[in-house]
């Protein structure tokens, strides 16, 4: 398996623009997580899905953030409108139900909002 | 609120030397504790995992220890190599909860 695949790897946009980040989890994984990483706050959980259903979105900072998982192999994280404080690295991770609970992370999408 | 504290925040060591990273946590009860390695510009990758009943776990030159009584864990790197330069993150999994508790990480720089 190619692992968790995220796109784009880098995104530079202007304040007010819409940003869409994409994620393809590892095939067969039941859980998908979106994290945000900054120097100040480290890794923060934004939202996670189980079998394509959003379970906990309490980490989503504002209504400007939304996430979807239309099927088991694809998820998106959308920011509209984007703001400079949204600049961070956004990671997608997936895991199987049970097991050791190991999270497999993608390479991240580095977002810069000017 | 569950917390995971790591120290030091960063350290610099010479190639070939050893170092030890610390992790203190308040998550209780917990299922397991992992150490992740995150290379610059990459996603975190699991290095070791320990359940509450394990005291030590090795992965090559990496050895993790766990004291569940004092809620402390350490990661020891032996004979460091330039490729060990990375951020090391301590992650605690609460029982019956998928919301992991992450430490802020320790940035290790190995110099030739």
Instruction: Tell me, briefly, the overall form of chain A.
Output: globular
- The 3D shape of chain B can be described as globular
Structural class of chain A: mainly beta
Q: Which residue ranges of chain A are poorly predicted, with pLDDT under 50 across at least 5 consecutive positions?
A: none
What would your notes on this structure say?
The complex is a heterodimer of chains A (114) and B (112). Chain A is mostly beta strands. Chain A has no helices and 11 strands. In chain A, the strands form 2 sheets. In chain A, strands 2, 4, 5, 6, 9, 10 and 11 form a 7-stranded mixed beta sheet that branches. A 4-stranded antiparallel beta sheet of chain A has the order 1-3-8-7, with no helix packed on it. The mean pLDDT of chain A is 94. Chain B has 112 residues and is mostly beta strands. Helices cover 0% and strands 58% of the residues of chain B. Chain B has strands at residues 4-7, 10-14, 19-25, 30-38, 45-51, 56-59, 62-67, 72-77, 86-94, 101-102, 106-111. In chain B, the strands form 2 sheets. In chain B, strands 2, 4, 5, 9, 10 and 11 form a 6-stranded mixed beta sheet that branches. In chain B, strands 1-3-8-7-6 form a 5-stranded antiparallel beta sheet, with no helix packed on it. In chain B, strand 6 (56-59) and strand 7 (62-67) form a beta hairpin. The N and C termini of chain B lie far apart (41 Å). The model of chain B has no long low-confidence stretch (mean pLDDT 93). The interface between A and B is medium-sized, with 19 and 19 residues.
Sum up the structure in keywords.
heterodimer; A: 114 residues; mainly beta; 7-stranded mixed β-sheet; 4-stranded antiparallel β-sheet; 11 strands; globular; B: 112 residues; 6-stranded mixed β-sheet; 5-stranded antiparallel β-sheet; 0% helix
